[in-house]
Design brief:
Chain lengths: ~350, ~350, ~350, ~350
């Protein structure tokens, strides 16, 4: 694999995230570039390729991965492995510039010991239809969005062990089209004594909303990524685009500037490319991703059991995480008994 | 008891709350007036009486209550009883003008069905030393501040039955001077399917912070009582007073205007006076207060057990609510077993 | 005239301001009450009277003023005169609670010497049609709204002499229906060395906007009356009313709570009633109003001449203030000469 | 001159702006890199070079410009000339991402016709001592900061001719150390009927403040660059750095994230590098800079004369722009006559 020059990226997929990644690669073009795109839907990949000037188009991503000069695939992983890392894990919030400032201040001692960290991400539901089908998505708002909050809080605190998780969830607004939870509250306790509150929603009106709070013994900071950064704007006419998932641009709205850069997508891809070249060490790894996935399983188990679950948690062999909640809820409806469900839990509560 | 003229109020106590109430009675003087004040600390009552022009001073409140023309006492209760009410319960947040606007919009259908309601009240700890002693206070931030949030959310939603409570708490910042929790997260589920998130803190830096959020299927509103209403202000010199519990008025700060009116204290006292005269029906009663107190007990039990507790909850005969958490925590430290504590719970989870 | 009891107020008019004043009298009912209302439009006065429980209705306000027990009229003035005051002048901003906090901080030395004070009031045009006709209104946004800003800044600074005024104005958005200026920028210099910037608009979209800034050598404060205090709100359904002149309550909006109280209308009427009873001295008088009116004349003259005009300013005998600008503009269009118009100016520039 | 590869930049100077530019070149390294630095102060250039890994250091910038491989100098200008441009002009606000979003919305018709555009930049005075000496700086806050606002508003509106300027200024806070104006209000009228209000200050407490407002017949947007984007933060301990010219990081403050990127400095340098390579056309040129400088002269003349000055303005042969104001003020103090000063004005008022 090449050690020099730009990392040549092949994109799998052609919709929302593919678009974001192609755009992000253009914002910070010095380390990586998109050279191919694969999507099974006829025409989709070609359309995106045309828009971003991507040379090659595939309908079968396996064909694309055979190409010698495309590196996002086995070669990239191999390169990563040779640096002692199993797999990289993509967590944009670790690259969100506004949140990095909070981390910088925290590391400089601004807040003293942090006892509470909050992150929330909310909107009115996912872009693609398949998310609503729990058999395909495996879970709802917690699964889709909570993975970001868990990763972020854990990383922000310096990776102390997660000792327990408690989740409250429900299908409040979209019950006609999904069995997935569309709102969740999630409390994680850490070995260093801190606690995280992570809020996620597919039931939130008014456009995308992402924010954090850091509460320490000596201070506090509030960082609102969307309404905070936005230009407070009123328009009779509208103007095409305000922010991800905004319902309209007429009337009052909170248009965001340089959305991808403010999310941290180009910075994240830059980091990946540099990791692939061995110039940087991944901020977050596949193992980290696994720990987060286990916490998500425990979160659903917690929502089902109505109690906090100790971490680490050995997930039972279920087809999808959300079953830990859905099955318990179903049982609860049948028996109405005041019993907790038992789970195989490693370690004590 | 008189049916006409101003209600003649006798104040018991001479510190923070007594001061607020005397001041509030002057802001809305048409229904009630302070005519006497009682405090055991020599000089305190006299000082407050002088400042607010209150005629009579007592060191024994029982002496004050014997006075024929003072109505806050048995006569007022008797009058209330004769209107079919056992006791009135003082919950200022039901009179906070900014929050009333949220209620007005909600009742007008602005948000459709509400699925999540949030209220938080935070500062760096109570005014008086006795709060820190759990033997006198019975609990910490949840007890002191959470009662407001529970009452508010319940009332806002239209008094649906509370079906469960889950609390997470800890002594994060003030463990050297108290065993009480100085931060708590509290999740309450209601029979109508809504959920409340109530956050309380004695560990919050930067001055008093009180805010609500209302999330419904069709909309959302954010009302920040302190930093929201405040005049964003920078001063090299300071200016005496910014807001309750603000650490300083130098540098950037968020001074509040007409603090008592914005809290709703005079409006609340006005309502009480009118209730005493039979002109209004209490918005919240002694029975309501009892239900809230039971929820607080269940909250401590929940924090101790690490699981949500069904409501209504028959509190065990303990000296103080916080023991439900402290005893469990002590037990947990000794046994490290992964057991839940058993409580006498009415109804199923 | 009575010296005791509530001041019995007769309201002349039945639309926007009459409604506000009737409502305000109900908010603070301890000093004054509305007892009669007069309006030439058949039915209007009766409708308002019914809504607010006002006893008597007149179509000719002169008939109303003959009533012995109505005091807003000659008797009130007479009472005021006997206290050495010619006439009271109604300036609500002197009673706006949020702005009073700025004044309190300024008087406490928070900002040191103030060098710049800003006030702006903006919306999309007046309630009643007659405002658009300069022959009836005498001027546009500066006349309608600037009087508030001039009075406020002058009072805030402690009434230093106004030494000059410069105005820039134009008919930017509503030229099809009015010759009046719909946007104006106004700079006033004071004898104490401070300067005021007053912005007014009938061309501002998105609802009423009123704000101040105080800039001193030692600090600064920003007070935004509308969007600042508001509950940031998103609604799919709307909810009846957000704030004065808001275009809609659907989508994002900034609904205000207790609008009249936050403007200061009831407090102002309370003050008037107490002045009428001799219990308070007017904060601002008829003479003050005259000085402000002269400044407005000078403002129009300044806009016409393209230069700052020294104050005090002896207005030429013109039918309406706006002619000082309109005539100059007309002249300019005809001659295109680079001449300043001459005005009778007292004192030097 | 090279047509390919990165533009090799030599930096002249070693303090505030040199630091910003060296840092900005590292943020967007794909088009340009700093290869040398020149500063007459011994050690300064070397220290900066060390911090940013810049290879060569000079004490005489003329020596640096002789280097064959350094392009910021004659070669760059020559390259620019060969593309038909006399000189590039650096105006960061044309690259400020938040403000570019306002421009994008405006160009998409969000606000309809714009009638008022506001920009303000304020802080408590410049970094270097020489700014305070009008013989070296030629002017104060208007000269230092107003050039940005004039360029921005003009560019934003699409470069309509500026037809007049009116400035009000004074030395309000720093009169002990400077004769320069430390606060100015500036009104510019444009041929398309729009008006700009530009506020600048060296007397503003609380840290750097830069904001814009766009007011159109169909909408409005508010973009606050500093307090808007910032993380609202309280710290007992401080944390090193909040934002340019912030007085402290203790207490409440508004720390900015990725300050240089949010200002637009790296984007601006990227643009310059691409212009030098002939890949982009300068957004603003030396000729534009000249027009802005003439407007500044006219602004000082206007402040001296107390009237608006028609543009274009043929500046009299004075040593420094501020003399147009200082001389008039001196004259006014001597004569106290109500006369305007005469200037050679091209075109009619």
């Amino acid at each position: 694999m090449a050690r020099d020059g730009k990392v040549r990226v092949g994109i799998i997929g052609s919709q929302f995230q593919a678009d974001i990644h192609a755009a992000a690669l253009q914002i910070m073009p010095d380390e990586a570039e998109a050279v191919a795109i694969a999507s099974p839907t006829p025409g989709n990949a070609a359309a995106l390729a045309k828009r971003f000037g991507i040379a090659r188009v595939f309908t079968d991503y396996r064909e694309m991965l055979k190409e010698k000069d495309i590196e996002e695939g086995e070669e990239m992983i191999e390169a990563a492995q040779s640096h002692g890392v199993l797999l990289m894990y993509g967590e944009e919030l670790l690259f969100t510039p506004k949140y990095l400032k909070a981390k910088e201040m925290a590391d400089a001692g601004a807040f003293g010991k942090i006892y509470l960290i909050k992150q929330s991400e909310k909107h009115f539901g996912p872009h693609s239809e398949w998310f609503w089908d729990v058999n395909r998505s495996g879970g709802g708002a917690l699964m889709d969005l909570g993975c970001h909050g868990i990763a972020f809080c854990w990383w922000f605190l310096g990776r102390p062990a997660m000792t327990s998780i408690y989740c409250q969830m429900g299908t409040y607004v979209h019950s006609k089209k999904t069995r997935a939870e569309d709102n969740s509250l999630c409390i994680i306790e850490f070995a260093d004594g801190a606690v995280a509150l992570i809020e996620n929603s597919w039931a939130h009106r008014g456009g995308m909303d992402d924010r954090i709070e850091i509460h320490g013994e000596d201070g506090v900071t509030y960082a609102n990524l969307h309404m905070g950064n936005a230009l407070t704007t009123y328009s009779e006419n509208g103007y095409g685009y305000a922010v991800e998932k905004a319902p309209t641009t007429k009337g009052w709205a909170y248009p965001m500037f340089e959305e991808l850069w403010n999310y941290g997508t180009p910075q994240e891809l830059n980091h990946f490319a540099r990791c692939a070249r061995g110039r940087e060490t991944p901020k977050i790894t596949g193992e980290d991703g696994l720990a987060i996935m286990h916490a998500l399983y425990a979160g659903y188990a917690s929502a089902g059991a109505g109690r906090k679950i100790a971490l680490p948690f050995a997930a039972p062999s279920l087809k999808k995480p959300i079953d830990l909640w859905l099955n318990a809820r179903a049982g609860e409806m049948h028996t109405k008994a005041n019993k907790s469900f038992d789970f195989q839990v490693e370690g004590g509560l």
